[in-house]
Structures are given as structure tokens and as C-alpha cells.
Amino acid sequence: MQVVDLRGSNLIEVMDSKGEKLIAIFPAKFQKSMWIRRGNFVVIDESGREEAVESGRKVVGMVTQVLYHDQIRLLQKSSEWPEIFKSASQENEKQILPPRTSQQDDDDDESCSDDDGLPPLEANTNRLNPNLYVEPDSGSDTDNSD
């Protein structure tokens, strides 16, 4: 399932392979170890889904696993990946990775590629970049040379 919206209070809105939107709970024990955001793919335990819908509850499942980039790639190559998610995952990759130019490709061939197939690092939007100010040399070094 794909995360559509973060509702707060450990609740997330997800979309299943049929395009149906559901609300699931993100367990508190995972909050420090796994982070999710819109567009991520998760595995949800829906064992009590029918019972929850019949009783009128909105929360129909619980997140059991957040899928990583490599896991998503493997699933996309298999026949089990739903068609509705194929376009969504391609859009997410376009947002993360800027379009490459031929000059960038040439520069990358010359540089060392030690990424080991890891997904690209994302900018930390929680920190402000400090504005560094460097004072120009005022020539005080010549006064001390007597």
C-alpha cells in the first residue's frame, strides 16, 4: 500500500492496489526506528479489516513494515506489483532525483562511484543552513612583523 497522507496521532492514510483509501495505524514502537512520508510504500496487517468496517471503525489495519528502495525495485520487477503503483513510484523517483544532463553523466564517469547501489541521500529539511561570514584580511599581519 502507498502512503497518501499523514494524519497525525500515529494515523496514516494509505491507498491499496484497487485505489481504495484506508486509514491505518503506525505503531509507536516504530516511530524512532522507521520514518514514513507521503509516497512511501508500506505493508499493512489487515487481519481485522472486515470486522472493523462492519463495526464502523475507521482504522482498518496496522503498519508492519516500511518498504525500502531496493525492496520496491524487486517488487516492481515481479508480476506482483500492482499497475496503479507503477506510475506513482516513477513519479516519486523523479521528485527525488533531478533530471541528469550529458555533462553530469561525463563527470560521474570520472569520479569514484562508491554508492554501492544505495538510494540517494535526501536533504535534511529540519535544519537551517547557517550563513557563514568571513571577514576579509585587513593587513594587520604587516604591523606585527617589526
From TrEMBL:
<keyword id="KW-0694">RNA-binding</keyword>
<dbReference type="InterPro" id="IPR012340">
    <property type="entry name" value="NA-bd_OB-fold"/>
</dbReference>
<dbReference type="InterPro" id="IPR039294">
    <property type="entry name" value="EIF1AD"/>
</dbReference>
<comment type="similarity">
    <text>Belongs to the EIF1AD family.</text>
</comment>
<feature type="domain" description="S1-like">
    <location>
        <begin position="1"/>
        <end position="64"/>
    </location>
</feature>
<dbReference type="GO" id="GO:0003723">
    <property type="term" value="F:RNA binding"/>
</dbReference>
<keyword id="KW-0648">Protein biosynthesis</keyword>
<dbReference type="InterPro" id="IPR001253">
    <property type="entry name" value="TIF_eIF-1A"/>
</dbReference>
<feature type="region of interest" description="Disordered">
    <location>
        <begin position="85"/>
        <end position="146"/>
    </location>
</feature>
<dbReference type="Pfam" id="PF01176">
    <property type="entry name" value="eIF-1a"/>
</dbReference>
<dbReference type="InterPro" id="IPR006196">
    <property type="entry name" value="RNA-binding_domain_S1_IF1"/>
</dbReference>
<feature type="compositionally biased region" description="Acidic residues">
    <location>
        <begin position="104"/>
        <end position="117"/>
    </location>
</feature>
<keyword id="KW-0396">Initiation factor</keyword>
<protein>
    <submittedName>
        <fullName>Probable RNA-binding protein eif1ad</fullName>
    </submittedName>
</protein>
<dbReference type="GO" id="GO:0003743">
    <property type="term" value="F:translation initiation factor activity"/>
</dbReference>
<dbReference type="GO" id="GO:0005634">
    <property type="term" value="C:nucleus"/>
</dbReference>
